[in-house]
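Possible regression after last week's pipeline update?

I re-ran a chain I had predicted before the update to compare outputs. Posting the input and the new output here so someone can diff against the archived version. Not blocking, just want to make sure nothing changed silently.
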Amino acid sequence: MSTPTTVGALTLRPLDPLRDAELLHTWVTHPKAAFWMMQQARLEDVERAYMEIAADEHHHAHLGLHDGVPAFLMEWYDPAHRELVGLYEPRPGDVGMHFLVAPTDRPVRGFTRAVITAVMRQLFEDPATARVVVEPDVDNKAVHALNEAVGFLPEREIQKPEKKALLSFCTRDRFLAATGVAA
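New output (post-update):
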């Protein structure tokens, strides 16, 4: 996928757990990634976590590039099998999603919104995707605002083993209405 945006071209490539682990380690242990819950992770922990994702048929990860330079992480999963099992009733076509923007000392205005828009567009390009499901920490107000900007509607708070989360959903139609971006 390549998406031209007002902030530059955003592309995705499959994550290579061995090749990309060192870079990801710097991202997930950065203070700005506190909600990623890997602050104390060692390089081996990150490598192992993404090796497990690479081997999992129900969980996937891509590295996002901004004008060819690694800049964000996208994960998607089947909520009937991962993350949300037993916490809500999944529907056919539900896809769970996480994204992480790399820390930077030179932020680009509108970049994170461009990233979440590109991630959502990628998910909705699959005609089987009916709804995107997210479960961010209830205290992550910044991501709640971004989710709302691309069409997510909060449904309720849920208790996951590692956090209290805000379960939210976005349909293809809500995404299009919120962003004007067709998948």
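Follow-up from reviewer: compared with the archived run. The chain has a mean pLDDT of 91. Marking as no regression found.
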